[in-house]
Amino acid sequence: MSVPLLHMSAIAKRFPGVVALDGVDFNLAAGEIVALVGENGAGKSTLMKILGGIIPADSGAIHINGTPVTMRGPGDAARLGIAVIHQERELIDTLDVAANVFLGREPTRGGPLQLLDRRRMHADAEQQLARIGVQIPTRTRLGELSAAQQQLVSIVRALSMNARMLILDEPTSSLTSTDAERLFGVLRDLRRSGTAIVYISHRLKEIEMLADRAVVLRDGRNAGTLARDAISHDRLVQLMVGRVVDRASPRVEASAGPAVLRIERLRTGRYPDVEISLDIHRAEVLGIAGLVGAGRTELAEAICGVGPRRSGEILLDGQPLAIHSARDAIRHGICLVPEDRRRCGVVGAMSVRENVTLPALWSYARLGLIGRSAEASAVRRMTTALTVKAASIESPVATLSGGNQQKVVLAKWLALRPRVIVFDEPTQGVDVGAKAEIHRLIRALAQEGAAVVMISSDMEEIVAESDRVAVMHDGRITGVLPRSRCTPESIMQLAVA
Amino acid sequence: MTRKDLGVLLLFVVLCVIVAAASPQFLSVANLQNVGRLVGTYGIFSIGVGIVIMTGGIDLSVGSICALLGVLLSMMLVEWGWPAGPALAAVLALGAGLGAAHGFLIARLRLQPFIVTLCGLLLYRGAARYVADDSTKGFGTGEGFEWLRAAAAGHVAGVPMPFVILCVIAVVAWLVVHRSVYGRHLIAVGHNEEASRYSGVRTGSVVAVAYVISGLLAAVSAVIIAFYTNSVSPASHGNFYELYAIAAAVVGGCSLRGGEGTVLGIVIGAALLQVLRNLVNLLDIPSSLDFAVMGAVILAGAIADQVIARRSRRSLVGRR
To answer: Could you read off the pLDDT of B128-147 as tens digits, one per residue?
Structure first.
């Protein structure tokens, strides 16, 4: 067998508290399209970040054409002919196409001023675009192009750097199906001319159509590789989830009480063409599963008043609510534990005490002045009940660990006795011990009668902690599974629809 | 008292000792009264601007507001013969109203604070010159509004009124910023507007009210300054006051990024600047240099602050 273009062997990488990659092998030959598949958190992005020189591996080796290489930064990767095209393109909207293609290595006319050689830039950019058979005027500002065209500009930029290996991370997530088709055409042409392509996607149909090989990762390890003829939707799903999920605490099916919160024909800003209807019952944990970008966060934010709602009704106990802000939702007892803790969950520079009482300050105040001792003792009660570990309630929240920060967010809402509480990725970035405690708190909330919604990309968490699971894909709910039918396979089938 | 406040206070005391040692005149009653009056006058609007800075915004309009309201106050009292009470009420209401307009543009229409208040700076200066016909306005013999003049420019037991008013306002502002629900929301919005919104804080109103406070305090200062100078020339009255205010707030521990700062710090900051000006005066340093001295001292303070912060961070890391 000939030496592959790229050979990554036994790559390992651990982050504080998690093993992201545990001895992964990955090969790539010139002129092939390899799909890289796995659940959220399976290690795909980490592997590609290592290949792109963005982060170093802890151990393992990378060979290119049989020669071992070390990469100290993205610059090294680019010199070796590796180009990563991210979901968030690192291009500049206000510059034109040619300027973006040559950003950071602009041709100059020399001399002391290093004046830009604009003519050469445009000529070269045009030539590169023609190479992949795309017609985009090089003087158009990038911001005026469609998402698909911008994607093509990223690819052209990579090719103009003589990339031999192209890594595409969810390239079609913001494209229409026609645009995606055109992208596939370009990728097939590139394959013919010998470029190696790594294609990361949650859309299994695309992989069936496009890939020569599919490499599946699970929990930071190789779960299997499928050759072109063996790639099928079912086989991929099986490899992605193929673990036995331990159901330590089997619970009886929650008796479906009346719906506390009813969502009717709700449309979010991100998926304006999709209407969502959903019932959430008293004393249940409704899990919402789906892959990144399925529209789960947008749904949560629309319910809780922090994100845009195009249309649709939110009914609490059958009464339609006018929710236009987080404040409105909170007044009705609908609270959100957001995904991005640092940006939306806590005010990091403020103390535990100040964070916990932020939504309910008026209840500690007389004539607008805060009763400090009442505030402090209430906060102490909450933090003790939730076992928040902090030097004192006066410590800035930013100095706490992820799990304890999350408990502070929870404490903030528990003081309000919420009717409905929505968790968005409640245990992301939280260590194992705190994770179990947060699960216990979520369960306790439901037992006290709250309607709990739990969005999670952690399949084990969804299966173990939910009474029912709604699965989302591309903005719509593709199915609601009762507890008895919640298995990783059945959820994944709906998530990749 | 925060550690930062203590640092500024220490700097202030050291500066006072130096000036007193260099010039015995510093501690004379007349000089202390003069400095006290200036500290009061500048301190009042500095608190307003400082509160705006705590939201992460900026207010460049206070100098021009002083000029416009000073001109209008003179015209109301002298030319239009208004009684002192309504004239005072009108001036304060106008100040708060201009602040509310800034707040609306910034919080509701999402314009940048720098641009809104820069336009205010230009607009009100022009308006002041236009309504006054570009001529200096005064208060004549002051018949009919003696009490207002006394309240703004007089003394209580030898203490100049502006300083007394500053003390009262500082106490109220301290309660509002450090003890009230509004103040907590103000600091939260300044640190992290997004998380505050997610917690149900009305972030827009919080920000807008800060500008109203700033406009109102600028109006209070405008009355005091107008009676102190006793003549208001619309082209130069109040020039650079916004910069004094920003400097006082920054010296006093506010961060232009928002969230940081205390009322006490701002007041000490304002006092420190006035003692510096006094120093230039007393030590026979050419008065043309007074801005340069202020600039140099503030810069030195900022550098020291940064160096100390970096060193303490490093020792923290070292201990780990």
So the answer is: 999 999 999 998 877 788 89
Q: What is the mean pLDDT of residues A87-99?
A: 83
- Cα distance between residue B301 and residue B309, in whole Å: 12
Check if the beta carbon of residue A68 is closer than 8 Å to that of residue A247.
no
Q: What is the pLDDT of residue B99?
A: 98
Cβ-based contacts of A338 with chain B (< 8 Å): 198
Do B194 and A348 lie within an 8 Å CB cutoff?
A: no
Which of helix, strand or coil describes residue A174?
coil
> How many C-beta atoms surround the C-beta of residue A496 within 10 A?
23
Q: How far is A80 from chain B (nearest CA, A)?
A: 36
CB A381 within 8 A of CB A367: no
Flag whether the ipTM exceeds 0.85. yes
Helices B203-229 & B62-74 angle (0-180, nearest 10): 50
Contact of B181 with chain A, judged by CB distance below 8 Å, is answered with yes
Cβ atoms of A199 and A34 within 8 Å: the answer is yes
Decide if B188 touches A, using CB distance below 8 A.
yes
Full DSSP string of B89-150: HHHHHHHHHHHHHHHIIIIIS---HHHHHHHHHHHHHHHHHHHTTT--EE-TT-TT-HHHHH
For the entire predicted model, the pTM comes to 0.82
Residue from the list A327, A329, A370 with its beta carbon closest to the beta carbon of B202: A327
Reported confidence tier of residue A250, pLDDT bands at 50, 70, 90: very low
* Pairing assessment for the beta strands A165-169 and A82-85 based on DSSP bridges: parallel
